[in-house]
Amino acid sequence: MIGYVTVGTNDMQRAAEFYDQLFAVIGAERLTETQTYIMWGTSAASPVFSVIKPYDGKAATVGNGVMVAFLIDSAAKVDALHKKAMALGGRDEGAPGQRGEGFYAAYFRDLDGNKLNAYYTG
After folding, report:
1. SS3 call for 65
2. Which domain holds residue 42?
3. Is the pLDDT of residue 1 over 80?
4. Average pLDDT, the chain
5. N or C terminus: fewer CB in 10 A for the chain?
6. What local confidence, expressed as pLDDT, does residue 24 receive?
7. CA 93 to chain centre
8. What string of DSSP letters covers 34-73?
9. CATH (domain of 21)
10. How many domains does the chain contain in total?
């Protein structure tokens, strides 16, 4: 049901470098790019993730309680994605581990403070 998710940024170049390297871990790449947004995904027919400069021209801010979750196909890739996020300057919000029966997850924030989750079910 989800087509795409966007998070705001105040520094497009910094966000682009972070997500280019982060998403390379799971095989996603830039699909579309303009002056105001960049979208990453594995195909245009699958859900995509983007960073965007807010339309109203005001500073991007982090939504309290907002989180974007990425479904990953293995626990090892969840570990790798979290590790990469930390290496790129992201902030840990919950190290990789089992969070309940069949739910393995890691939580982190990007360079703009947006909360992200990588999870595997199985």
Report:
1. coil
2. 4-53+67-121
3. no
4. 95
5. N
6. 97
7. 13
8. -SSEEEEES-TTS-EEEEE--TTSSPP-PPTT-EEEEE-S
9. 3.10.180.10
10. 1
